[in-house]
Design brief:
22% of the residues lie in helices and 20% in strands.
Amino acid sequence: MRMKVIFGMIGGMAILSLVMSAGGGAAPGSSGEGIEPARHEGRRFYNEDPDALPGFFGMLKWALGRHPGSWHSYRDLPPGPPPPRKVGPGELRVTFINHSTVLIQMDGLNILTDPVYSRRAGPVTWAGMERVRPPGIRFEDLPPIQVILLSHNHYDHMDMPTLVRLNQRDQPLVLTGLGNSKYLSAEGIRDAREFDWGQGMALSDSVRATFVPAQHFSMRKVYDRDTALWGGFVLEGRGTRVYFAGDTGWGPHLEEIHSRFGDFTLAILPIGAFKPEWFMGPAHMSPRDAARAHVLLKARVSVPIHYGTFQLADDGEDETPEEMRKAMKAAGLSDQEFRILEFGEGRDVPIVD
C-alpha cells in the first residue's frame, strides 16, 4: 500500500505540486485578438496572477494533513453507445467520456479533448494514478478524430499511450500550448501545432480554434515545471461558440474570455480535485466556481468534467457531482442549463442563431 501511495504521488506530481515559436499564429483581426499572450521569463511561463498558486510548503501542509473522501476500487462498468460518425453543418453534440476527455462534434468535425484511455495516468504504465472505472466510450467506438485539443502536459491530460494509438489510427491534428510538441514528437507524433494565448487557426471552412488563458501550471518531470504553456480552447463554428476550459482555477481570465468572444453555446468546465479548497482552489475550479463561470460566460449549456475517474485530491468520488447539484440549485440553474452527463452519455446541444 505504501508503494502504491508513493507511485501515485510521483505519477500525480504535476497535479499535486502546486508551487519556441508557435506552430501557427493567429492572423491580425482573428478571434484571439485582444487576448494577452502569456508572460514568460527565460524558460518559464506564468499565470496572469503569478502569485495565485500556493508553493511547496502549501503542498507539504496538505500532504501531511489529508482527509480524502471515499472512492470505489476499480469497477468494470459498461460503456455508453457509440457516438454518431459525425454531425452536420450547424449542429453541435457533446459526449462525456471520462475525466477531461470529451468528444465535441460540430460542423462535420470530430474533436477530442485531453484523451486519456490508459489504466494509469503517470510516467510509467505500471505505476501512477489508477482509474476507478473504464472510459465511458470504448476506444474502438470512437469515430474518426480529426483534431485533438491538449490543454496542458499533466499525465491525466497528456496521456502518451492514448495519443500514440490515436495517431496510428486517425493521424489527427494536435493543438496545444507552447513548449508541448517536444513531448509529442518524441513519441512520433509530428502533426502538432503550438500556440500562445490568443493564437489559433482555422480547422475547416467553418470552424476556428483559439488557445485561451487558464490559471494552472505545467509539469511532467521534476525539472520542467512551467516550461510549457497551459490553457483552454475556444471553438467557433456556424452559429456555435464552445469553450473547453481544460484544467483551471477561478481567475480573471474567465471574464477576459467572455469579453473577447461573447456568450457561449457550450461551456465545458472542470469541477473536480477541488478539496481542500485553500490549496486546490487556485488551480482547480470547485462546483461552486463552475456554476459562477456558467453565469459569467452566459453559456446556453454547460457540462462538467474532471471528476469521477482519478482520485487526485480529497473530494470523494460521488461528492463532486453532489456538490455540483447543490451549486446549481443555489445559482438557480436547471439540469437543462448545467447538464451532468453520465460517463459515455452524449447530448445534442441546441443552437440559436
